[in-house]
Every structure is written in C-alpha cells, then in structure tokens.
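Need tokens for this chain, all 100 residues.
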Amino acid sequence: MIIEYSPELGVHLAEPLEFHRFKLVLKGAIAVNSPALKGITLLDRDNALVPVDLVPTLPGRPKDDPTWDAAYTKMVASARERGWIDAKSNAIRAHIERKF
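Here are the structure tokens for all 100 residues:
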C-alpha cells in the first residue's frame, strides 16, 4: 500500500490495492508535525508511523469493498506478526520515500 502526501492532494492512497508493500511517499517539503499529515508521525528521515485506523479513511480507498477490508485486516495482522506495529500508538511502521 502506498500512502502519498503532496501539497496539492494532501494525504491519500496512491496504490490502495497493493497489499504486499507499505510505504509513505512525500512529494514536496512538509514540516514534521504538520496537521496535513493527519496523525502520521515522521520518526526520522526514513521511517514513519501511520495510524492503523487512518488508512481506511483516506481518499483513494475503494468504497464499500469487503474484499479490500479483508485484505487490509490481513496486511495489518501480518505487520503485527513481523513486529512492524507500534503497540503504543497502534500504528504501522512505514518506509519514507521522498520525491521533490
């Protein structure tokens, strides 16, 4: 799943059907604590925490699609098994890719 931020579109799902990789693509500069990130925490230059509950609310998600819901639940469970979920914040660790 690719979550993307751009100043024009804000935070949205760029590839909502890609359940085998998870990353945050930042297009353009953004402040670490910007409200435009909708609760995504930038840990450092390369890593972020994306709230588990945020992803299904983002633009770009297929609406009323039980197949998508099941695949997302499975992806989160897999991330939890691999230790990629921060239990305190209930967020998925994501690699950051920057595009300027």
